[in-house]
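Hi W., the zinc ion complex you wanted:
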Amino acid sequence: MIIADKSVVFMHYTLTDDQGQTIDTSAGREPMPYLHGANNIVPGLEKALTGKSAGETVKVSVPCEEGYGPVVPEAIQTIPVDAFAGVEEEIKPGMQFQANGPEGQVQVITIQEVRDDGIVVDGNHPLAGKTLHFEVEVTEVREATEVELEHGHPHMEGGSCEH
Ligand code: ZN
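Structure:
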């Protein structure tokens, strides 16, 4: 069957940046499943996979607008060093934390700069502003079950999950 909304798709993927460096890959792991049409993956990749079927490979470069979005300057903020009291010695640029965003969503915060007058943190997604180069091999396509559609994500072996 071909990939359309309500398809559960299994794929191997490799994601590289503009310099050809691998950011993420499923190589050496099981193929990754996702539910098509449910925002499980970035819109640009979902669009490129629509209409494909098992055995096909897709190579696509996704601009940030169809990936993790542009870098939002307002998401970069300076926080008083006091906020990190006790651990300020350990704070180094490049460190990442998970925090809850304004709508309760999990957000990755990256330490950008440690200054005397404050710590500069970046709440943009680590891949915001980047063009994403995907190489994908579709390994399996099946119809989603009722429960999967209700949950908005695939279940392994059609079983249940913790949600
Ligand atoms: Zn579920």
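The radius of gyration is 19 Å.

W.
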